[in-house]
Design a protein that fits this description.
Order of helices and strands: HHHHHH
Largest sheet: none
Number of strands: 0
């Protein structure tokens, strides 16, 4: 009875959590677009400055040396370029995918800053779309399996405990071993001597 209730609760919790994924990814894509737009400005300004000096991006980065400040700025710009490239690719993939297709793109919904911003404004809603129902079904299945495994592990531990204690109590006291008496050795025989009766 408890096992069924636990698995049902796990299925409901999994369905409720996963059913919000399509709506959350939509919010994430909107936030991601804002992040990419902001990075476009930074990257565009740097490349424009490099072009005015007759340099490529790589050449301009290579010249940012000589002082600790310039070295730090060089590292900052390299991180900015990498982040811009990754987020631009993620945004293109997520925009091209359908709501159902985004279920397979969980790895693309992983930027920490964008996740925090999207979660801050996210409000759960009833999943009325096909994607919402599909993710709810997936969440219900996962939640049921996790709850079933958890309950089977707990019940196995609970069954083992009393058995071990009962076995230790029912174990009889071990009697000390007794040594069997060995047969008395016969006395020595004397050859040529006869035993006479008194």
């Amino acid at each position: 009875m408890i096992g069924r209730a636990l698995t049902l609760a796990g299925a409901v919790a999994g369905a409720a959590a996963c059913s919000q994924y399509p709506a959350f990814t939509q919010q994430y894509v909107q936030r991601l677009a804002g992040q990419v737009d902001a990075l476009d400005v930074v990257v565009g300004d740097f490349e424009a400055s490099a072009m005015r000096a007759g340099l490529t991006r790589t050449d301009a980065l290579a010249q940012m040396t000589g002082t600790a400040f310039l070295a730090d700025r060089q590292d900052d710009m390299r991180r900015t370029f990498r982040r811009h490239a990754v987020l631009t690719d993620d945004l293109a993939r997520l925009r091209d995918a359908t709501s159902l297709g985004r279920i397979a793109l969980v790895a693309r919904v992983s930027d920490p800053a964008t996740l925090r911003a999207a979660w801050g404004d996210f409000e759960p809603a009833m999943p009325l779309s096909i994607a919402g129902l599909a993710t709810a079904a997936i969440g219900a299945a996962v939640g049921w399996v996790v709850a079933a495994i958890t309950w089977s592990g707990l019940s196995a531990l609970l069954r083992r405990g009393p058995r071990r204690r009962s076995r230790s109590r029912a174990r009889p006291n071990r009697a000390e071993p007794t040594l069997a008496r060995s047969a008395a050795r016969p006395g020595p025989r004397l050859d040529g001597v006869r035993k006479t009766r008194a």
